[in-house]
Structure to design on (355 residues):
């Protein structure tokens, strides 16, 4: 059962009173749900307290994972945010990691709230008003600038199993990803997707790692907040972050853009990324197919086994059904790149659209 605003207020006040005994007159107010995506429960709130007889006010975010392997996910996101913040990348400062389920029955983190404009809302408004000039010349350059800056960070600031580039083969990351996907297809009996996997396996020798980078793995305008205070673009939502070939990250964003908007917008992102980074992205279509496979796999598992299988919010199922056009768009892109059709996958898309 979703927590009420009153209950969240009570729990947060109890938490701060217990763990911050040096603070007096603690008050929580202005609790609001910000949950929009598939994964977490997200709430903004205001914390007011006295410390050393000085009244202080903080605008904060509470992030709770609903189900699944929440302890490791929560700690990983906290570690990622802390490392990125310390490296000077524009992410919210994270203050609290709580792995005990004593308060919300699940682990949570508390971070600064960036008060500002949701780039995703500006992106949608510009698209709906057919203001493509604003999208391509104002919104997307900011998005791509932050994307390139992320991929230019030293990937070794995050905990990982790689000591140096010399310790891995040129195909280390793609082998790891394909192996993970193959295991997932077997485990969940997703035979409709085997053709896509086989296409990728047959061509993997064309994509030796080009540059190791920190991957956000869900980089899009709705995960960018433009601060009212300093005007900077702050990147949020990091639970899927990993280390890998930067093209995997870029291709996921191109896939999402193509799924929900148009080829023109997706192509503009790629062109801007290349312009800002100063280099041509090689073999990006291979990674687009990898992203399409990941998207289909995620959605099919959620629809067949429930959102809880991935530790997602229950609303994810309905959100998918309401936007089934995205699957048609990325399937079209897949057939364009590979010249392959998959009747079983076409039937799956049709069946979901008729529900």
């Amino acid at each position: 059962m979703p927590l009420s605003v009153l209950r969240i207020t009570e729990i947060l006040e109890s938490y701060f009173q217990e763990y911050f005994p040096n603070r007096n007159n603690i008050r929580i107010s202005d609790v609001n749900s910000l949950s929009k995506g598939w994964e977490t429960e997200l709430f903004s709130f205001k914390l007011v307290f006295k410390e050393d007889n000085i009244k202080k006010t903080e605008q904060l975010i509470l992030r709770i994972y609903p189900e699944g392997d929440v302890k490791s996910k929560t700690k990983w996101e906290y570690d990622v945010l802390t490392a990125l913040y310390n490296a000077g990348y524009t992410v919210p400062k994270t203050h609290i990691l709580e792995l005990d389920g004593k308060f919300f029955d699940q682990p949570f983190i508390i971070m600064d709230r960036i008060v500002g404009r949701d780039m995703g809302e500006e992106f949608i408004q510009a698209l709906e008003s057919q203001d493509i000039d604003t999208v391509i010349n104002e919104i997307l350059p900011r998005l791509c600038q932050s994307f390139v800056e992320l991929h230019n960070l030293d990937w070794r600031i995050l905990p990982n199993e790689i000591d140096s580039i010399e310790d891995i083969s040129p195909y280390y990351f793609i082998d790891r990803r394909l192996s993970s996907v193959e295991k997932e297809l077997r485990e969940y009996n997703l035979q409709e997707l085997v053709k896509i996997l086989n296409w990728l396996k047959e061509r993997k020798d064309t994509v030796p790692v080009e540059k190791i980078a920190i991957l956000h793995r869900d980089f899009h305008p709705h995960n960018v907040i433009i601060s009212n205070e300093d005007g900077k673009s702050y990147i949020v939502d990091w639970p899927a972050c990993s280390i890998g070939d930067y093209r995997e990250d870029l291709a996921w964003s191109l896939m999402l853009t193509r799924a929900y908007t148009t080829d023109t917008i997706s192509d503009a992102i790629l062109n801007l990324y290349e312009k800002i980074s100063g280099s041509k992205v090689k073999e990006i279509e291979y990674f687009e197919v990898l992203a399409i496979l990941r998207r289909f796999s995620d959605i099919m598992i959620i629809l067949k086994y429930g959102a809880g299988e991935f530790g997602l919010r229950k609303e994810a199922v309905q959100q998918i059904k309401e936007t089934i056009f995205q699957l048609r768009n990325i399937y079209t892109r897949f057939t364009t790149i590979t010249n392959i059709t998959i009747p079983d996958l076409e039937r799956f898309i049709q069946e979901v659209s008729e529900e």
Notes: The beta strands are 24-33, 41-51, 54-64, 94-98, 108-112, 116-118, 212-215, 224-227, 233-235, 242-245.
